[in-house]
Structure formats: C-alpha cells, structure tokens
Specification:
- The structure holds two protein chains of two kinds.
- Chain A is α/β, with parallel strands linked by helices.
- Chain A is built from seven helices and eleven strands.
- The longest helix of chain A has 22 residues.
- The radius of gyration of chain A is 20 Å and the shape is globular.
- In chain B, about 30% of the residues are buried.
- The chains are: A alpha/beta, B mainly alpha.
- Chains A and B meet through β6 and α2 of A and α9 and α10 of B.
- The structure holds adenosine-5'-diphosphate and magnesium ion.
- The site of magnesium ion (MG) has 2 residues of chain A, from α1.
C-alpha cells in the first residue's frame, strides 16, 4: 500500500435518472487521493456533488461507476473505520450525551462491559470539553455542544478516517471558531486522517493541508488541488498576518467566483486522473499563483 | 396566570355540572297532573302516571342507586344480577386480552411493513380492504367459527384494535429520520439491534399514539359486542337493565363506561408521554 494513497477514489461517477428517461450526471470520472494523517477539504458551490462524494466515501451511498479504496481495500458499505460527523449532528434525542457516545463505543467493542464502555466514552466527553454535561439530553444542549458530542462520538470509535459534511455551517461565528480550534488540536494530536466539506474559505485555509476545488455541477470535475502554504503551527487568530494568506485566499476566492463556472469550457485538456496541484504563495512580483508541481 | 386559568376553568366546570344537575332535577321532578288521563291508561303507565312521577329518574335517584352500587360492586346473585364491578371487570378483561393479542400482532407486522417497501406494497391491498370493515360485521363469522360468545367478543376487540396500531407502527417506522438510520449504519449496527436501539425509540411516540386510538375504539366496541353476545359484561348489563326498564341503572352504566374509557385513555396518554422525547 502506497502511503500517499491511504484514501483513493478511483474514477467514480454518480448519475440519477432524469425526467426525460435519460440520466443526469452529477459528476463522472472523479479521481482523488489522500495520504494517511492528512486533512483534506473539499470546496465547491452548492449542488456540485460534495455531499455525494462524502457519502460514497462513508459507504452511505454507492457510486454509479468506479471504486473507492481505503487502506488498500475496496470499500463496500459503511464501516466503523470511517466515522461521519453529520451537518445536522444526528444525535439520538432519546439518549443522553453519555448514552449517545456509549452507543457508538459499544457498537465498536461489543464485548466490553458497561463500565469499560462508559470509561472510554468519558475520555472523549472530556476531550471535547463536555465534562459535567454527561447526563444532559441533546435538547438541553446548544448547537455548539451538540456538534461537540457529534465530534466525540466520531472520535470515540478511533476511526481510520473522519468524514465531516459542513459540520460547523449551522453554528454562530464564535462557536464555529472554538470548534475549529478543537478539531485542529485533536486531529494534530491523533494524526487523524480527515476529509471535510466546507463552504467557508477561511475554515479550509485554517484546517486543511490540501484543498480540493470542485467546479459547478452538473458534470462537476475536480479542477485543482491546492496545497496549503501556511505553516503547520498556524493559529486561527493571526492566520491573516501570514505573508501567504492573501495569495492563498485570493486563489480560492477567484476559483469560486469566476473559474468554477467556466473551468470545463476553458480547460478542454483537463485530465481528471492528473489534477494540477498548486501552492499559491506570496511573491514580490504581481500576485500570480505559481504552479509548482503540475503533475503527480 | 396558569394557576388562575386552571382555577377559573375548574369553577366553570363545576358551574356547568351544577347547572346540568339542576335542569335535570327540574325536568324530572314530580308533577301533579294525574287526574287528566283515563284510569286504564294510567294503570298501564304504572308509576309514571299514578304518582305523577317522570319515567326518567332524577339526579337524586341516580345518586342513591350509584351509592348502592359503589358500596357493593362485586356481589353475584346469579347470571342476571351481578355487581357493577364484576360486569366492568368482564369487559375490561375482554378488552385487555383482545387488545394484548392485537399488540403482539400489529407491532411486529407494522415493523415489517415500515422497514420493507416490498411488504408495504404487498400487504397494502389487504389492509385497505380489511380496515374499513365494521368490527361487529365479523361477529357472525366469529360466532360460527369460534363457537364461543366470549371468545368471539375478544376476537372482535382484536380485529378493531389491530388497524390503528398496525398503521401507526408502519408509519412511525417508515418515518424514522434518515440521519438516525445513517448513524446506525456508520456504526455497523445490525438490523436486529438497529430495530431495537434506533427505530423502536424513534417510532415509539407514533406507535403509542396508535395504541391510544386503539384502546379507545376497543372500549367503544366492547359495549356493542356484549349487547350482541350477552351473558356478562357492561354492555350486557346495559341491555339487561333496559329490558328491566331500569333507566337508573342504564344511566349509571353509561356513566361508568365513560369513566373507565377515560381512565384507559389517560393510562395510554401517560405511556405516550413517557416515550416522547424532546428534539
Ligand atoms: N436522490 C437524488 N435524485 C436526484 N438528484 C439528486 C439526488 N440526490 C442529490 N441529487 C442531486 O445531486 C447534486 C449533488 O448533490 P449534493 O452532493 O448534495 O451537493 P452539495 O453537497 O455539493 O451541495 C444536486 O444537484 C442534487 O440535486
Ligand atoms: Mg451538501
């Protein structure tokens, strides 16, 4: 198994039957890979198929064509190795915080006794800062706390991959910020491989090692892979002070505002198996993103 | 504010009750207009005419009789003279048994229909045809095949309480939020465990609502069923007292049917609240 391809999405397509009897292609021939321990973010306009990609990766949805290989094995269906953090947090409202996490823990380790399950769950409740709220029900928690439970539940089963579908988009800016810090800290600590969808450019720049840019659907393609030039020990507060910050930000914004619409028409030779990798950086000359490694 | 609303509602309720009793009392009070009818007719009409007393008992008669019943609810002087408690006990027993069997059938079947689109489609025509049939229409068939009046009544209770539970269970199970199912799927929870740990708690409020509708219908139907099959039970009691022309007992029985029906409904309402979760 090559370490650069811990996750390998190989030529997947998703089609839905169309009204006229044909089929609508949401995307096709999509190739994407990520090494172990990396944080990948996918950015694109609404409806381009990001959730579909993530659900296929989770095993909740099936591709019309192609395969997904994780850790050297083609996936079939869902797995405890791939934990999902849902946008709507998806906590079971009849269970307490402890109950929700213990449910996940006891699903993974079926032979564990109650005390062991609770002890393990408690570790993760503490890790996301929910100590003292173990016996609350989801309806008694704020949006941010609910999402913390969702994160603790995903982490508690020590998955190989964490999949997050716009996990913070329903939260206020302040809560979102603290949760981003939390996720960054935890993923760095544990070396967790993470794949996340976001709408928020700053979120992607803060969290991601690689940012995958998707064009508009239908017929969306993965246009570019942006390597994050910001240092690994970056902090959310003074992210914008870094010299590369605006180069990176402008590059992504420019893609979302203009190039995502016209990319397919203006780039006829785009090879979906060899997506260009760029590393936008600050240069003294007029700000032009430099193409470092066009081929992989 | 809430407290005062509750208090005012109680005052109005009591006022309505007293007004009703008052009007009832006035309407059934003895009238002294005996002389105007022919003696033969007066004799034929019995007490009603001779003493000028209305055939309709007044609240005081009913109250006195009710007190008598409440003091001795469980006496048994042979087939046609049993205490009110015994008669109600028979009815509650039949409802309980028929209803319990209906729960055993409706909830697993409802799960099957709710979880399997195939079974949903396959069973739909049968349910659509069987559901609108009046439960009492089954009575002759039940009497003919089962050959036991008490068991037939239980069967009728079963058949009338099964539909609301079945449909509500199927609906509740099918309507469980996709995201909760997805949580179970990503945790590789098997079908059986998923049914008990996710679908059952999620659908429980809807299932209990169906069970509450069912117990109400069962209690409505048992009275009619017992009038038909006779022997024992509160329905039979009403019919028997009507044949005895004891309107007082009929009124008392009606009151008791209402009170027991309310208690059954409240019990199920309490269970429903217990399984309802806030979101
Ligand atoms: N069941 C479905 N039937 C038909 N089209 C669907 C279905 N589910 C999703 N789509 C379409 O697939 C496209 C991609 O959806 P999605 O992956 O949710 O987009 P994103 O998450 O990027 O906003 C959308 O245009 C949506 O309309
Ligand atoms: Mg989406």
């Amino acid at each position: 198994m090559s370490s650069t391809k811990f996750i390998s999405i190989e030529g997947i397509a998703k089609r839905y039957p169309a009204a006229n009897g044909g089929a609508t292609t949401i995307f096709e021939d999509l190739w994407l890979s990520m090494p172990s321990g990396e944080f990948g973010c996918i950015i694109g306009h609404s409806g381009c198929g990001k959730t579909t990609v993530l659900n296929i990766l989770a095993g909740l949805d099936e591709p019309s064509e192609g395969t997904v290989i994780v850790d050297g094995q083609a996936i079939s269906g869902t797995s405890l190795d791939r934990a999902v953090i849902f946008q709507s947090h998806a906590l079971l409202p009849w269970l307490t915080v402890m109950g929700n996490i213990a449910y996940a823990v006891s699903s993974k380790w079926r032979k564990w006794d109650k005390a062991k399950v609770r002890g393990h769950a408690q570790t993760y409740i503490d890790k996301v800062g929910l100590t003292g709220s173990e016996h609350k029900r989801p309806s008694e928690l704020s949006g941010g706390m609910k999402q913390r439970v969702g994160i603790a539940r995903a982490l508690s089963i020590t998955p190989k991959i964490m999949l997050m579908d716009e996990p913070f988009s329903a939260l206020d800016a302040l809560t979102r910020g603290t949760l981003q810090d939390e996720v960054r800290r935890v993923t760095l600590e544990t070396g967790q491989t993470t794949f996340m969808i976001t709408h928020d450019v700053d979120e992607a720049m803060y969290l991601a090692d690689k940012i995958f840019l998707m064009t508009n659907g239908p017929g969306a393609v993965l246009a570019e892979i942006v390597e994050n030039p910001l240092p690994r020990d970056r902090s959310r507060i003074d992210l914008h002070k870094h010299p590369h910050y605006y180069a990176l930000r402008n590059h992504i914004i420019d893609f979302l505002v203009t190039r995502s619409k016209t990319f397919t028409a203006t780039t006829p030779n785009h090879d979906p198996r060899r997506v260009p990798v760029v590393r936008p950086q600050f240069t003294e000359a007029p700000t032009m993103p430099s193409l470092t490694s066009a081929l992989r | 504010m809430i407290q005062s609303l509750r208090f005012r509602a109680a005052v109005v309720s009591i006022a309505i009750f007293l007004a009703f009793i008052g009007v009832w009392h006035l309407a059934t009070r003895s009238t002294a207009s005996v002389g105007t009818m022919s003696p033969e007719y007066a004799k034929l009409m019995g007490l009603t005419a001779t003493s000028g007393k209305s055939a309709m008992p007044g609240p005081l008669d009913v109250g006195a009789k009710l007190w008598e019943h409440l003091r001795r609810p469980f006496y048994d002087n042979g087939p046609n003279d049993k205490g009110l408690g015994i008669q109600l006990g028979y009815s509650i027993g039949r409802v309980g048994l028929g209803y319990f069997i209906a729960v055993l059938v409706a909830i697993p079947l409802g799960f099957l229909i709710g979880m399997s689109p195939l079974m949903n489609k396959a069973l739909d025509p049968f349910i659509q045809v069987l559901k609108p049939i009046s439960p009492l229409a089954w009575m002759p068939l039940a009497l003919y095949t089962i050959k036991d009046s008490s068991l037939s009544a239980i069967f009728v209770i079963f058949i009338c309480s099964v539909w609301p539970m079945l449909l509500n269970t199927a609906f509740g199970v099918a309507a469980v939020r996709k995201e909760w199912i997805n949580v179970a799927r990503t945790l590789e929870v098997g079908t059986f465990r998923r049914a008990f740990t996710v679908i059952l708690p999620a659908a429980a409020p809807t299932i209990l609502t169906g069970m509450r509708i069912s117990i109400g219908i069962a209690w409505l139907v048992i009275v009619a069923a017992e009038m038909l099959v006779g022997g024992t039970g509160i329905g039979y009691f009403v019919w028997n007292e009507w044949n005895n022309l004891s309107i007082t007992n009929v009124i008392i029985a009606i009151l008791m049917i209402g009170v027991v029906g309310m208690l059954l409904d409240q019990t199920l309402a309490r269970f429903t609240r217990m399984v309802t979760f806030p979101e």
